[in-house]
Write a structure and sequence with these properties.
The complex is a heterodimer of chains A (about 220) and B (about 250). Chain A is mainly alpha-helical. Chain A has nine helices and no strands. Chain B is of the alpha/beta class and about 250 residues long. Classes of the chains: A mainly alpha (about 220), B alpha/beta (about 250). Chains A and B meet through α6 and α7 of A and α2, β6, α3 and α5 of B.
């Protein structure tokens, strides 16, 4: 028991490491917040563009969506971080992580929101159009709110799964939680910093999960 | 008494879905203040005819005159037209994420650009007309089917349409809820609203309709006052249908 506590919850190490973990937490929160905002916004924009443009737009969109859903985020991060400098584009590691995770989230969000849009029954369109609302007005006031309500549970799951991938930033040296923790582990040869990292992730994501639940409950009119 | 120019005048209307011809040259006019009932077996094209009137379905050919304008004119302001032609659907189609009042006021605010307070006032009056002012803040899921359908009627009425189209308004309702919707329609009729109704409520047709139109296979077989259609139809097909539904 003592050995266990010593390797996983060593008080001295906790005292020495927490400022670094805290710094990592701040970096993780920054990236996560940026990824959530830009990923969801881009996903919504793509879904709306797909609805508006239809036909010709679907093919390039499907290519993008399938690519970013199929290729592991780690591969994309490494490709862009080590590949782009060869063509003269030098992005800081923070930007690469943000860019890749945003695009991955956008790809999933587009599909989820699109599924929500087409799940809204045709009668809703017809009723709204029969009162003189334009197609765009019907989309904004009648269909999209219902589509987003349907999209919230899968969107919350995806958002959490993808923002957790900020931990992948460690491979390109982004000083987020995971990076701070593994650095401390290699200096100390003790797993305590990893436990602290896990605690930091809990601290970050439990409120996010709670927020998702709240949004679901807030818009909990029943489907007809 | 009645205006000579019909409010709605349908001429030679055709509609095909792919190779299936659903409407085959419909001629029908509805005068101001008239209640016209469309009856006929399922698949006879009644609902399609109704949906062509506000172009929820795009007719293949013919013309529809409404309130002095050609509905099928490609340059017509279709949204402006639709707002003057209220429609009530079989499945109510209320917006589930809005209260009853929200449902009624959406088009008032977004199409007619009424300020919020004025829209609410008009909306409440419309809800009052269908006897549901006390349910203004209820969501559709909290209302019975009959109440939902009356909210849907109020949603159309709030825009002060010249014509109301009813597409089987009571078919999705439990029998005990049908009466309240029919009562609302009866009141509308008494207030002089022009109505074109697709319905299987033959008793209501007999008692309230000015004219009954019997359709079969995409054509109008026969039309006339209810006494004629239900009592002394000239066409064998009409008599067969009427005696079938009477059973």
């Amino acid at each position: 028991m003592e050995r266990f506590l010593d390797s996983f919850l060593n008080p001295k190490l906790i005292a020495a490491t927490w400022p670094a973990i805290l710094k990592g937490l701040v970096v993780t929160i920054e990236i996560a917040a940026l990824v959530v905002v830009s990923g969801l916004a881009l996903g919504l924009a793509l879904a709306l563009l797909r609805w508006r443009a239809g036909g010709w737009f679907t093919w390039p969109l499907m290519f993008f969506v399938d690519l970013f859903r199929a290729v592991p985020a780690l591969v994309l991060i490494l490709l862009i971080f080590f590949g782009l400098p060869n063509v003269g584009i030098d992005l800081p590691s923070f930007a690469v992580l943000w860019l890749v995770l945003s695009l991955v989230l956008a790809a999933f969000a587009e599909e989820i929101i699109w599924a929500g849009l087409i799940a809204v029954r045709k009668g809703q369109w017809e009723a709204a159009r029969s009162t003189g609302l334009s197609e765009t007005q019907t989309l904004i006031y009648v269909v999209l709110p219902q589509a987003l309500r349907l999209a919230v549970p899968p969107l919350t799951n995806r958002t959490i799964a993808i923002t957790k991938n900020t931990a992948l930033g460690t491979v390109i040296g982004v000083p987020e939680i995971m990076n701070q923790a593994t650095t401390a582990v290699s200096f100390s040869g003790n797993a305590t910093p990893l436990m602290m990292g896990a605690a930091a992730y809990l601290l970050l994501f439990i409120p996010v999960i709670g927020l998702g639940r709240w949004i679901e409950a807030r818009f909990a009119w029943r489907r007809q | 008494m009645r205006q000579r120019d019909p409010l709605l005048d349908i001429r030679g209307l055709f509609k095909s879905f792919g190779s299936v011809e659903v409407l085959k040259g419909i001629e029908l006019s509805v005068s101001d203040g008239e209640l016209v009932f469309l009856i006929g077996p399922s698949g006879s094209g009644k609902s399609t005819l109704l949906r062509c009137c506000n172009r929820l379905e795009e007719p293949t050919g013919g013309s529809i005159h409404f309130d002095g304008k050609e509905v099928l004119d490609p340059k017509i302001d279709i949204n402006g037209l639709r707002r003057r032609m209220g429609m009530v659907f079989q499945s109510f189609n209320l917006y589930p994420h809005m209260t009853a009042l929200g449902n009624v006021t959406l088009a008032l605010r977004k199409v007619l650009r009424k300020p919020k307070a004025e829209a609410a006032e008009i909306g409440l009056k419309a809800l009052e007309r269908v006897g549901l002012a006390h349910k203004a803040s209820s969501y559709p899921a909290e209302l019975s089917g009959g109440q939902q359908q009356r909210v849907a009627i109020a949603r159309a009425l709030a825009l002060e349409p010249k014509l109301m189209l009813f597409d089987e308004p009571t078919s999705a309702l439990d029998p005990e809820l049908v009466g309240s919707v029919l009562a609302t329609m009866r009141e509308l009729r008494e207030s002089g609203m022009t109505m074109l109704v697709v319905s299987h409520e033959m008793r209501f047709a007999r008692e309230a309709a000015d004219r009954v139109v019997f359709m079969d296979g995409g054509v109008i077989v026969e039309q006339g006052p209810p006494e004629q259609i239900f009592g002394a139809a000239t066409q064998a097909r009409t008599r067969a249908f009427v005696s079938d539904v009477a059973r």
